[in-house]
Amino acid sequence: MTAKLIKGTEIREEILQEIENEVKKIKEEHGTVPGLVTILVGENPASISYVTLKIKTADRLGFKEVQDNQPDSITTEDLLTLIDKYNKNDSINGILVQLPLPKQVDEKKVLNAIDPDKDVDGFHPVNVGRLMIGGSEVKFPPCTPAGIQEMIVRAGVETSGAEVVVVGRSNIVGKPIANMMLQKGPGANSTVTVVHTRTKDMADHCKRADILIVAAGVPGLVKPEWIKPGACVIDVGVNRVGEKISEKTGKKIAILKGDVDFDEAKEIAGWITPVPGGVGPMTITMLMKNTLKSFKSSLGIA
Ligand code: NAP
Questions:
Q1: Reported pTM
Q2: DSSP per residue, 123-189
Q3: Measured in angstroms, how far is the CA atom of residue 168 from the centroid of ligand 1?
Q4: Helices 8-30 and 282-299, axial angle in degrees (round to 10)
Q5: CA distance linking residue 8 with residue 5, whole number of Å
Q6: From the candidates 119, 121, 235, 261, which is the catalytic residue?
Q7: What is the CA(60)–ligand 1 centre distance, in A?
Q8: Residue 131 CB–ligand 1 contact under 6 Å
Q9: Would you state the pLDDT for residue 173?
Q10: Can you give the pLDDT at residue 1?
Q11: Per-residue b/e over 258-290, b at no fewer than 16 CB within 10 Å?
């Protein structure tokens, strides 16, 4: 069997086009666009490149993008004041604080100060609670899990009654996607098992999975023989396993590998996501979708 590839790069384009069209339409009818602020503290190169990508995407969609750069020496109090300013600004629908923050800043305090109705990352405890309750309570599903669910649905994979096994229990991927897949409703209604480092026989659990979602950060962790023939395999892992020279730019780039041995797994699975080009492109896309949702809700048209 050769699995169907679920390409995040293609699904991203579909979703961004949908958002762009909706933003244009709302702008014509209401004369306003979504506003997103990104707070970047310091000059961490990885943070800068991630923020740059967010800004580029927001610009393409016609959002009002506010880039707020702050020095590495900023205090928790100053960041709290800044967040309060954006919480009160009606033209801002989404507030992002790029992590990591410098050591002297109380990260938890800062993130918890964001108005939950502008927390488009979906990490505020109020939004975690809303996700747990499910249904219409959910305001902003966290972006990577939301991207995973969107990929499964758009690939046409049946989730109702499916055995879903999630490898990993982090707060940003494993726990939220497990919670989302077991909710009552479309794109969910699954029977979910979560495995981790203390699980007794991980292989046995994985072998039962109709949908196997792997987010461990261990290259090649899931062996091909753990995959049920025809299963949908979502590989969230992004592991740097070396460097190579890019054919396009001639510059050194990282060689990325997922948590699943792709070449062998694709001969057994029914669907599979590649790394890179699978789940990766979905995170920023879903961030934009959450910002649009927040904007529509502020206009009373959500
Ligand atoms: P994390 O916080 O390090 O959590 C990893 C989880 O995997 C933990 O729950 C850990 O179990 C489990 N685990 C690790 N090794 C294992 C093993 N040998 N057997 C069973 N379980 C194991 O990682 P994360 O933030 O969720 O990220 C996971 C991967 O996804 C990383 O490669 C990351 O780069 C990638 N990622 C990609 C995106 C994206 O593409 N947009 C977004 C987020 C993350 P314990 O809890 O027992 O320690």
A1: 0.97
A2: -SHHHHHHHHH-GGG-----HHHHHHHHHHHHTT---TT-EEEEE---TTTHHHHHHHHHSSSTT--
A3: 5
A4: 20
A5: 9
A6: 121
A7: 31
A8: no
A9: 98
A10: 65
A11: bbbbbeebbebbbbbbbbbbbbbbbbbbbbbbb
